């Protein structure tokens, strides 16, 4: 298992964007699937987006069209581009590659 570290979170106004990164301590080239989850206050952790080794992607209904997941195997990093942010997107975002990162807070507020 690799050690994962998320970055790129912060406070953003509604309609703004964030780009989250998930840096792995080792190679991700052989990891079949990687994913982003989020956990909002008082709610369960939910799958947001998933990307396979071939580049196939899945998005939950609430983020489809606004979120873009990608991975760069050469940099051992996965990304989540989040556009058109809504207050409901406020959550701690976690990356998953067979192990979990520590999470990064994303807050959407005017």
Task: Report on this structure.
It is a single chain. The protein is mainly β and 110 residues long. The protein is 0% helix and 49% strand. It has no helices and 10 strands. Strands 2-10-9-4-5-6 form a 6-stranded mixed β-sheet, with no helix packed on it. A 4-stranded antiparallel β-sheet has the order 1-3-8-7, with no helix packed on it. β5 and β6 form a beta hairpin.
List the helices and strands and how they pair.
Blueprint: E1 4-7, E2 10-12, E3 18-24, E4 33-39, E5 46-52, E6 57-59, E7 67-72, E8 77-82, E9 91-96, E10 104-108
Parallel strand pairs: 2-10
Antiparallel strand pairs: 1-3, 3-8, 4-5, 4-9, 5-6, 7-8, 9-10
Element order: H for helix, E for strand: EEEEEEEEEE
Shape: globular
DSSP, total strands: 10
Residue fraction in strands:
over 45%
How is this structure best summarized?
The protein has 110 residues and is mainly β. The protein contains no helices and 10 strands. The chain has strands spanning 4-7, 10-12, 18-24, 33-39, 46-52, 57-59, 67-72, 77-82, 91-96, 104-108.
Core attributes:
globular; six-stranded mixed sheet; 110 residues; four-stranded antiparallel sheet; mainly beta
């Amino acid at each position: 298992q690799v050690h994962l570290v998320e970055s790129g979170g912060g406070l953003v106004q509604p309609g703004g964007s964030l780009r989250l990164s998930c840096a792995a301590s080792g190679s991700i080239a052989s990891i079949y699937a990687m994913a982003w989850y989020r956990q909002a206050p008082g709610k369960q952790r939910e799958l947001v987006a998933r990307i396979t080794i071939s580049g196939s992607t899945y998005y939950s209904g609430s983020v489809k069209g606004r979120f873009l997941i990608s991975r760069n195997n050469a940099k051992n990093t996965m990304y989540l581009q989040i556009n058109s942010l809504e207050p409901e997107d406020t959550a701690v975002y976690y990356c998953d590659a067979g192990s979990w990162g520590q999470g990064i807070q994303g807050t959407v507020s005017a």
